Amino acid sequence: MSPPVIVVDIADVKAATKPAKLVSIGLGSCVGVALFDSRSKVGSLAHIMLPSSRGLNPVDNRAKYVDTAIPLAIEEMLKLGASKSRIVAKIAGGAKMFSFTSKDDYIGRKNVLAVKNILKKEDIKIVAEDTGGSVGRTIEFDTSSGRLLVKTVRKGVREL
Amino acid sequence: MAKQMMLNELELDMLREVGSIGASHATNSLAELTNTKVSIEVPALEIKPVEELLASEGGEDLVAGVYVELQGDICGVIMLLLDIASAVELVTQITGMPTASEELSDMEVSVLQEVGNIMASHFSNALADFLGLKIMPLPPALAVDMAAALLDFIMLEQAQKVNEAILYKTKFMFQPKQITGKIFLLPDPGSLDRIIALLREKVGIGV
Question: What is the ipTM score, two decimals?
Answer without folding.
Answer: 0.88
